[in-house]
Amino acid sequence: MWNMFLIVVTLLALHRTDSIDIDPPERVRFKSTNLQNVVVWNPGMEGTHYSVEYAIYGDEDKTVEGQGLWRPVRHCTWILLNSCDLSDQTHKLDEIYYARVRAMRDSAVISNWTMTRFEPRSDAALGPPHFTLHTSGNSLDIYLKGPMRWKNKYMKKERPMKKYN
């Protein structure tokens, strides 16, 4: 009887270990204001790590015919945050981008990927303009500027959004 009890307990323990699962990230989407393009998702359980990859529509993996070329985002690999700034990777306005995120608890427990699509020209929102006020006697001067495009690593100086829309 004791042997049977040990076998049942062992089988239950093995079954429980094999059935540990992790849910994939939910509501993966881009938030973009002035072309600061950040992929965000709903956080999972505390202690969950995430990895992010992106792809450009039309780029194919040369090693696997018909397979899209997914690029890991180095600064968003094994992170605890529920967002990743992809502004440097998604800076071309006329491209279509994809991002995918997966959750991980350790190297053995990895979720499926959850994917989203992003088109900078149509999906980015414009932020408010910058303004300054100057008073002199009875007059008030209002100076408006922008909104300005988010400065990524490929830009040498700020650019107003009006040139792009």
UniProtKB/TrEMBL annotation:
Ligase among keywords: no
Q: Ranges for the Fibronectin type-III domain?
A: 5-107
Q: What GO terms are given for molecular function? A: cytokine receptor activity
| Pfam families reported for this sequence | Tissue_fac
For this record, an example GO cellular component is:
plasma membrane
Signal sequence bounds: 1-19
Q: InterPro entries annotated for this entry?
A: FN3_dom, FN3_sf, Ig-like_fold, Type-II_Cytokine-TF_Rcpt
Kindly state which keywords UniProt assigns to this record, in alphabetical order. Answer: Signal
Which SUPFAM superfamilies does this UniProt record tie to the protein?
A: Fibronectin type III
**Keyword Ion transport included in the entry's annotation:** no
Output this protein's name.
Fibronectin type-III domain-containing protein
What species is this protein from? Alosa alosa (allis shad)
Specify the taxonomic lineage: Eukaryota, Metazoa, Chordata, Craniata, Vertebrata
